[in-house]
Amino acid sequence: MSLTTLDNYFLPGSGSEVIELLQEYGERAMLVAGGSFVHGLAARDLLPGIDVFIDIQKLGLADVTVGSEGLQIGAMTRLAQLAKVPEVQDAPEWGAAKDALRYPPVQIMNTATVGGNIAAACPYFDLPTAFLAIGGNVLAQSNAGTREISLDDFFTGLFENSLGQDEFITELALSRPVPGSASAFIKLETNANDLAIVNAAVQITVESGICQSARVALGGGVNEIPLRSAAAEKLLKGQSLTDALLKEAGQAVQADISPMADHRASAEYRSAMARVLTERALHRAITRLN
Ligand SMILES: Cc1cc2nc3c(=O)[nH]c(=O)nc-3n(C[C@H](O)[C@H](O)[C@H](O)COP(=O)(O)OP(=O)(O)OC[C@H]3O[C@@H](n4cnc5c(N)ncnc54)[C@H](O)[C@@H]3O)c2cc1C
Questions:
Q1: How far is Cα of residue 263 from the mean position of the Cα atoms in its chain?
Q2: 105 has pLDDT over 70
């Protein structure tokens, strides 16, 4: 599709209208939230057969609630708005989100939405990797009601997610980690406007010097989807987090990734940097705990 072939542009005012439109137009329709990825998709010829846009900006869905359960983030929350939430700025447990929100250019921070960032299922975006390390659920609405999809199951392929044809994201619910937890995210990019070559994010929970649980997530061209490293998580759990162990955890992620090669980086470089960034993210999370 080129954007000139667009036939219909809808601006529904309610979730039920969105669902009706998704049902009526099926694969011809695409939701638009902040709209920042639309041109990128069109330019890469990734919108074949799409001639209907459903703009969801009138739905609201832009509140962020902080509670004992965690962070509930409306799908239409702009990245800049999330970055200003005091808990995101200050609390060690949301450190990975804070770190990831440092990277996008200011224009993208002000237009892009959290729902769009996740729904795009682009492995090069930063928030999916950070959110995967923290853990939580995507809330999706359809005629059947609201469904919770674990972030672990949400990304199914390059630009593909587990939403049904008539479903859309209303909220992201990040689970509040238990006390003694901290998270961190690090991105490798070629310049300040670049998408990630490699992303690494971790969340650790430490009690009496022992790692009770660990979540290690990688993104940015180390796989078609952001993914967790079971090998690194297993290695860390139940252990004292020594420098030597953090180095080993970095090496362990290399078994779980399938890095891509492109004009920005070779597969070998991505693999080596996944190791380095994982180790550094673990150090950063430990520093936050202390
Ligand atoms: C110049 C530039 C620099 C960038 N730099 C960065 C960066 O440094 N880090 C980074 O992480 N990202 C970066 N991005 C990507 C940016 O973060 C995404 O484009 C943005 O998050 C997508 O959100 P959006 O609201 O604009 O989504 P849209 O562009 O409106 O939509 C994206 C996709 O999600 C779908 N969608 C949107 N909302 C929903 C919903 N509620 N339910 C279901 N499906 C939905 C749409 O149908 C579409 O397929 C950059 C983009 C550009 C253009």
A1: 24
A2: yes
